[in-house]
Amino acid sequence: MSDLKKLTAELDCELESILTNSDGSDEVTIYLRNYLRYSLLRRYLKWLLCISIVIAILCASIYYIPFLNWNASAIGRLALIKLVLPYYDWQHLYRSRCLIEQAKEDKFTYKDEAKGYYEFNKDKCAICEKLSGIDRISSTTYATLQSVYLSRDNPVIIDDSHAVWPNQPDVSENFIEFLFDLPDLRNSIPCNIGTNLLQVRSGNSPKLQHLLRQMSKIDSKGWFLHFRNCDFDAVKSSRLIFPLKHRPYFISSHLPPFHTSWILLSKHYNISTEKHLPVKDLVIVLQMSGTLSGRLTVRRDCKEICSDQMLKLNAGESLVFNAQMWDFYYIHNINSHANLTITTIHEIQID
Questions:
Q1: Mind listing the domains of the chain with CATH numbers?
Q2: Contact yes or no for 120/300 (Cβ under 8 A)
Q3: Burial status of residue 317 (CB atoms within 10 A of its CB: 0-12, 13-18, 19 or more)
Q4: Measured between alpha carbons, how far is residue 193 from residues 197, 278, 301 in Å?
Q5: Which of 107, 115, 152, 282 is at a distance of 20 to 30 A from 182, taking alpha carbons?
Q6: Which of 307, 313, 306, 310 lies closest to 333, judged by CA?
């Protein structure tokens, strides 16, 4: 083997000497140079083919093997949140079905073939033109909820939705400590933050644990905080308070788990300024502690026909509405005597 290597090395040196000393005009030199170029090109193509085959096998494995698919998706989400989000705010694209906006027919519009564009159909506002308040019900079922309210895009309040905080003996009475005990939630970077705890700059959102620690520093001065859990692991952890490990009894088991959630907290924050939350899909607002006031305002041009719906949620009550029809605003209730006001909001995607 050593003799073969020695011979190969001598041939390489001899070939290099010939090519170096030759002026490149003779046929032998031209042939050798073309042969070397062809050999190098063939070697590079072999490497490129091998790499392409490996990448194709890897992609096929990720696509067809659920375990690999799930882990690749998780890594992709983490990369978007940890690496991309601090530099580019992609949150508005998170639930978009199409990245290019286009006119489309929906429940509020129709296409005028003669004019060639979409016009607003005010007949669709009939579902809310007579609505003069939000109904309160109890001991209901999802079938009733769907047929009487959701199919008509009417909001509804369930009086006996869930037990107030805390409703389990193994759960800390201190909700802030409870959040600290959930590592995936504590270490997450929330979205859509609204607070007076600190100045939150676009593209530089702090971790939730930093916001929670800030609460103790200005506890006596009064504070508020609302945020959306957009980290996949944080959403999973927040399901522990839905409320506290169990779905409300009126939510059917056939519905998918909520894809994102909100947490609203306030303490001694007696300000009547409204806060708007850009919620989506089927929305469930659960009042865990204290009182929450607010209003639902109809979207699009139905505002001229349908009036705003005022609401007040006490602990143990919940509000259910379709965010395609209604915008949600809330107020920190100045008459709430609870030490800590806790509200959770959950969004479930439905057809």
A1: 2-64 (no CATH), 133-348 (2.60.120.650)
A2: yes
A3: buried
A4: 11, 11, 28
A5: 282
A6: 313
DSSP helix/strand/coil, 81: helix
Euclidean distance between CA atoms 154 and 250, whole angstroms: 16
Say how far apart CA 98 and CA 245 lie, in whole Å: 34
In sequence order, which ranges of 22-174 are alpha helices (DSSP H)?
A: 27-64, 66-79, 142-144
Q: Torsion-angle region of residue 174: left (phi > 0), alpha (psi -120 to 50) or beta?
A: beta
CB 349 within 8 A of CB 282: yes
Encoded tokens for 35: 């042969």
- pTM for the whole thing? 0.64
CA-to-CA distance for 161 and 78, rounded, in angstroms?
34
Residue 337, amino acid: H
| C-alpha to C-alpha distance for 164 and 211, rounded to whole angstroms | 24
Task: Tell me the average pLDDT across 19-39.
Answer: 67
Question: For residues 248 and 241, what is the distance between their CA atoms, to the nearest angstrom?
Answer: 11
Residue type, 36: L
- pLDDT recorded at residue 117: 45
Predicted confidence at residue 105, as pLDDT, reads 46
Residues in the chain: 351
Pairing of strands 135-137, 156-158: parallel
Instruction: Answer yes or no: are the C-beta atoms of 344 and 263 closer than 8 Å.
Output: yes
DSSP strand pairing (309-313 vs 223-229):
unpaired
- Please state whether the peptide bond connecting residue 278 to the residue before it is cis, i.e. omega within 30 degrees of 0: no
H or E stretch including 212?
helix 208-217
Residue 169 to residue 171: CA distance in whole angstroms: 6
How confident is the model over 213-260, as pLDDT tens digits? Answer: 888 777 667 888 999 988 888 887 777 665 556 678 888 877 887 888
Helix or strand or coil: residue 12?
helix
